[in-house]
Amino acid sequence: MNIIIDIAYYPLLDKYSKAVDDFLKQLDNSGISYQTGATSTLVHGDYDRIMPVVNAIMKDLMKIYPSVFSLRISNVCKI
Fold first, then answer.
1. What predicted TM-score, i.e. pTM, was given to this entire model?
2. Domain, as residue range, for 50
């Protein structure tokens, strides 16, 4: 099943750009498809492929940075 995840990432830091860069680097390294926007990132692909990747990235970042993630997941929206 294909899904789209709309991820808004809010690192709770004055200098948040490093955390956002780390988030995007991890997405790049994962090989999953994504598109960045002004306030969120769209990740798309097979549910069983991308959910573990997104979960691992969020967990890694939350170990390092105080973080808030807001996710919307859809199996009907198309890119």
1. 0.92
2. 2-74
Q: Indicate which CATH number applies to the domain containing 27.
A: 3.30.70.930
Task: Indicate the residue type of 54.
Answer: V
Tens-place pLDDT, residues 14-38: 999 999 999 999 999 999 999 999 9
Q: Please identify which residue in the block is written with the tokens 């097979």.
A: 46
Inter-residue contact 3 to 52 (CB < 8 Å) = no
Contact 35, 79 (CB under 8 A): yes
* Beta strand residue intervals within 1-79, DSSP E: 2-11, 33-36, 41-46, 67-74
Dist CA 79 CA 72 (whole Å): 14
Q: Which residue has the tokens 């993630």?
A: 69
